[in-house]
Write a structure and sequence with these properties.
alpha+beta; three-stranded antiparallel β-sheet; two-stranded antiparallel ribbon; 3 helices; 27% strand
Length: 78
């Protein structure tokens, strides 16, 4: 946050990624959680039309558990 604030105050441009989803952390079924070694994933509650997420064929109701091999347990991981 401090880097972004400092960059904006100095007149620099800050690039941020945009996926186009709203998500919430949800517990995974016990067997899947044991298999993946993580207790939760991210349930997509909304996918913006024409967003990168929709173009990547993500749909509302999908549950994401990994991104580039890294576990997704809560929104900070996304």
């Amino acid at each position: 946050m401090r880097r972004v604030t400092a960059a904006l105050l100095s007149g620099k441009r800050v690039a941020r990624g945009y996926l186009g989803v709203t998500a919430q952390a949800v517990p995974l079924p016990e067997a899947l959680a044991a298999q993946l070694g993580q207790p939760s994933g991210l349930l997509l509650t909304h996918v913006e039309p024409l967003s990168p997420a929709e173009q990547g064929r993500l749909v509302q109701g999908d549950t994401l558990v990994r991104l580039n091999g890294r576990p997704l347990r809560d929104l900070r991981d996304l």
